[in-house]
Amino acid sequence: MKDSQPIILIGGGGHCKSVIDVLEMSEDFVIAGIVDKAYRVGAKVLGYDIIASDQQLEQVVADFSCFLITVGQIESSALREQFYQQVKALGGDLAIVVSSLAHVSDYAQLGEGTIVMHRAMVNAGAVVGCNTIINSQALVEHDVWIGDHCHMATGAIINGDAQIGHHTFIGSHATILQGVTIGENIIIGAGAVVHRPIDEPGVYAGVPACKIRDV
Ligand code: JB2
To answer: How far apart are CA 114 and CA 145, in angstroms?
Structure first.
């Protein structure tokens, strides 16, 4: 039997619950505790203890080596990125987690701190950056490039050769057509269809997707 590595989760809300479910099905990790806001220390998430607050992170990184940022990301990636940078600066390692129900091609690459959740697929030639969420049932097709601190929400479809810049969020069931490039700091609303390149930061929605506001 192979050894499971203790892992600390940072952020104990809804996304953390989904991550716990992924980790419990993995033989690679055992959940050692959760870090959340100070007032939540002592509470539990799905039976796992919130063992420390952000203020105690330095000590937690001294005691453990492997981490995953489990604060979610609906619009801004700022909090996820802040914790990612903090853990790295303190010398911690960010895990790469792939659900046993997901498929990641042997010809794809995932960056540190990235999770591929249940029933998601990352196909051949795809490159996914660091601290990115490929959420349940998302599809990342062949040769797609996705940057750091992104979130492909549940059921999002990123077709072949598309590119997604850093800090960009693709909403649930949005579709990015083949070869389309989306820049940094862009939010694509749920169900949108993007058929042309987008480079100006902002929130885009609809079919075809149009800008509806600034971020
Ligand atoms: O400053 C913070 C902080 N602010 C919020 N420090 C720490 N350590 N944790 C913080 N949090 C924690 O993030 C909250 O205490 C809470 O545990 C969590 C936010 O929980 P919530 O359930 O509101 O959202 P989420 O970020 O876990 O999940 C969102 O994103 C997912 C991808 C949700 O909208 C989910 O539905 C979605 N699937």
So the answer is: 14
pTM to 2 decimal places: 0.97
Ligand 1 pocket, residue 63 CB under 6 Å? no
Name the residue of 10, 37, 85 whose CB sits within 8 Å of the most ligand 1 atoms, as the mutation to test its pocket: 37
CB distance 138 to ligand 1 below 6 Å: no
Residue 208, preceding peptide bond in cis (omega within 30° of 0): yes
Q: What is the pLDDT along the chain (215 residues), one digit of tens a residue?
A: 568 999 999 999 999 999 999 999 999 999 999 999 999 999 999 999 999 999 999 999 999 999 999 999 887 999 999 999 999 999 999 999 999 999 999 999 999 999 999 999 999 999 999 999 999 999 999 999 999 999 999 999 999 999 999 999 999 999 999 999 999 999 999 999 999 999 999 999 999 999 999 98
- Domains delineated in the chain: 5-94 (3.40.50.20), 101-207 (2.160.10.10)
Using DSSP bridges, classify how beta strands 210-213 and 202-205 pair: parallel, antiparallel or unpaired.
Answer: antiparallel
